[in-house]
């Protein structure tokens, strides 16, 4: 009978991804409440050192599934290997971090078990042995409580930051590492080496003040309004993804999971809804201001000051007021 | 090259969402809809590949009659024909069930390429395409931002986290999930809109009863606020701006 929780640990270039520790914390928390053992799985080739590293955590064991074809990540390789590990371990829950890599192969893996993932969860609550997962829907505007009503295993992924990696518990002694040679079938995709685009022209990570615009700015011509505010504050202009997608601003002004991560003293978000992929890039800013006409916009969840209203009314007035203050 | 592009209709981004009586989804009656953002880019990339390499672009959308708006718009932009997987309760399927039905709907077309968006803006599963690829026995790549189909093998550029990218090579047929921003989206021309009227829309109505769901939404609700936001201006944006400048100066001391 299916039992236990299996947590997937991700690594690249010889080190564990920090979201792996968040996933371990999530799995341990579920395990404690359900009274189930937690084991971890790591896939690779020549990566037993990383398995040993995970073994320091409070886990019943670490499965290190090895095959030469797992040296580099591919969806075919990882899916085959994970399927074999899961069939052997027969867990009730498979917990993973919601990273780009997991997004790439985990739905394929779950499909082998005739199901999908409960993806991108922000928390899990247990009552009477039933796990209720919460996920954000509508780009962060609503939460949904989701339960699984199928056969085990239940596949769930957790959003980055849902659990704290530093709360993953270490064990009193090292967990046993079980090396498992796994079979991997044909790998159809050939990955080339990962690379970064040429150095970005603008480094926003050092900016003290950032005025960021989102789709609420409506047109390229209106950007001037935000630029004037930024100039009055002596700050830089930045944007959410759709603004850079539309080429209204260059991509090196993009803030978020696929752009830059910033932490200025002051971050002013104009007409930005506050999707998680944007928030991860700016949530550690000192003072956060949001101007948005939707009172329920998720950006307000992390804002210190908010104005509910039209940015085209607020911004010119704000710019004038700031100029006055600066002239004093 | 035969390309199938999957396009979903979702609630308009600026729509005010109201929760339905049962608390299980939003009230859809008075809602306005639009095409899922990344799906628009999936269509654009498909049209560009067709223009370069020849072939055919078939748009496929699943949902009630209203999704015809998305289909007609795609035909007006240059898609050649459409498949409408039609039914009133097809929007609330689990990603596995949705992928099953969509895979069934396109299997016989034997496409060289299937394009989907990387994620739907309502459910946000980020799974439908990848599951379809598995069910159809195709290799896939997700979060794709460039496609090179000129060779025997397909070459695609994938976005990785924090500014990293990677090229992948794989055989066709394949499925790609497309990231927003891959190219600039064209507008429909008047000529395109006229031409679209003559294009074929095939309607199929799948049976869904036997499909397991595996995940069920119990309720939806507004997220709990975690931070105490000071709201300024009380609905008057200009007054809010005046108050804000004062707060930034004297309370937050950031200017
Ligand atoms: C894998 C992946 C990676 C991503 N990476 C990033 C990333 O790095 N950075 C990023 O930003 N996004 C990223 N996204 C996209 C992200 O999910 C959102 O789609 C995006 O952040 C939304 O941008 P927005 O807030 O500008 O637009 P919208 O969500 O459309 O919000 C516009 C807001 O403007 C408000 N508004 C409209 N008119 C006015 C007005 N006159 N006055 C005041 N307010 C107004 C509206 O109420 C709304 O809240 C990524 C998505 C995925 C799936
Ligand atoms: N009902 C649908 N009709 C057409 N395409 C869909 C539908 N549902 C999902 N898709 C496609 O699958 C992608 C991912 O959706 P999801 O797995 O819900 O995040 C979307 O961007 C669409 O391209």
Task: Characterize the structure shown.
- The complex is a heterodimer of chains A (328) and B (255).
- Chain A has 328 residues and is α/β, with parallel strands linked by helices.
- Chain A has 8 helices and 18 strands.
- In chain A, the strands form 3 sheets. In chain A, strands 9-8-7-10-6-1-4-5-11 form a 9-stranded mixed sheet, sandwiched between helices. Chain A has a 5-stranded parallel sheet with strand order 15-14-16-17-18. In chain A, strands 2-3 form a two-stranded antiparallel ribbon.
- In chain A, helix 5 packs parallel to helix 8 (311-327).
- The N and C termini of chain A lie far apart (74 Å).
- The model of chain A has no long low-confidence stretch (mean pLDDT 96).
- By secondary structure, chain B is of the alpha/beta class.
- Chain B folds into 2 domains: 2-210, Rossmann fold (3-Layer(aba) Sandwich), CATH 3.40.50.620; 225-255.
- Chain B is built from 6 helices and 13 strands.
- The N and C termini of chain B lie far apart (58 Å).
- The mean pLDDT of chain B is 95.
- The interface between A and B is large, with 95 and 85 residues.
- Strand 9 (142-147) of chain A pairs antiparallel with strand 12 of chain B, so a sheet runs across the interface.
- The structure holds flavin-adenine dinucleotide (FAD) and adenosine monophosphate.
In DSSP terms (H or I, runs of 4 or more residues), the helix count of chain B works out at 6
- For the record, what is the CATH homologous superfamily label of the largest domain in chain B? HUPs
Multimeric state:
heterodimer
Helix/strand structural class of chain B: alpha/beta
Radius of gyration of chain B, taken over Cα atoms and rounded to an integer in Å: 21 Å
Strand content of chain B: 25-35%
Shape of chain B: globular
Shape of chain A: elongated
User: Any idea of the CATH class of the largest domain in chain A?
Assistant: Alpha Beta
Number of E strands of chain B: 13
Poorly predicted ranges of chain A: none
N→C terminal distance of chain A: 74 Å
The largest β sheet of chain B comes out as: 9 strands, mixed
CATH architecture of the largest domain in chain A: 3-Layer(aba) Sandwich
CATH fold call of the largest domain in chain A: Rossmann fold
Mean pLDDT of chain A: 96
